[in-house]
Amino acid sequence: xxxxxxxxxxxxxxxxxxxxxxxxxxxxxxxxxxxxxxxxxxxxxxxxxxxxxxxxxxxxxxxxxxxxxxxxxxxxxxxxxxxxxxxxxxxxxxxxxxxxxxxxxxxxxxxxxxxxxxxxxxxxxxxxxxxxxxxxxxxxxxxxxxxxxxxxxxxxxxxxxxxxxxxxxxxxxxxxxxxxxxxxxxxxxxxxxxxxxxxxxxxxxxxxxxxxxxxxxxxxxxxxxxxxxxxxxxxxxxxxxxxxxxxxxxxxxxxxxxxxxxxxxxxxxxxxxxxxxxxxxxxxxxxx
Length: 288
Ligand code: URA
Fold this sequence. Notes:
This protein is α/β, with parallel strands linked by helices. Helix content is about 45%, strand content about 10%.
């Protein structure tokens, strides 16, 4: 255990550099904290009256000086959200439905405090590309690069996605890209069902406002969440589905996630098949 109180400024900076170099990117407390108990308490005991908005909880700094004799207590954790899960979901639906434009939707989402992912993320990652695009792609959630830069798919998976799009004559001026959660899940974990449910009304409204002809769902999380499916991505991929939204039917195609393709390059053959299917459908629709 490092005695943080014994560190001078230079030592603290060296320690931070060391943490960064070995890939530490999520701060944890010194003693375990039972977050399952916390979320159970939150979800099972809706508060009778919604309290005022809470200030965003930020992780405590790594080198916070600690009084030498202080007892070891869990890092104080603010409740993830002031509202119960059901109240927060209802509020998400209301906020999303009231947005008449993508700019308004972005503002509403930025102001929405119901999803705890916002607390650990650096910023909102709303979308990239052209809002008038005929093709909309939806991924899982921002990673470290996206969280830093504020745009979806800008890291290694994003670079592969750009190559995949280029292979069928598309680029970011011709597609619109978003994620099922707009805040980075800590440590790139998969978003929880509660987090997905809270963000879904915003994603649905985003699809409605973009009103693309084609929806490409990248990976299991995006495909299952948007299509309300339980099947795995290996069964879903390559099969067109109808997505009903705002009185319009959008053709939706689940595909393998580019991050998965980086880990399993042999699966690129399947991805190429799906891209060709998308290109064929686009050509057939004649709007490109
Ligand atoms: N993976 C995703 O699903 N979305 C991003 O924005 C980046 C990586």
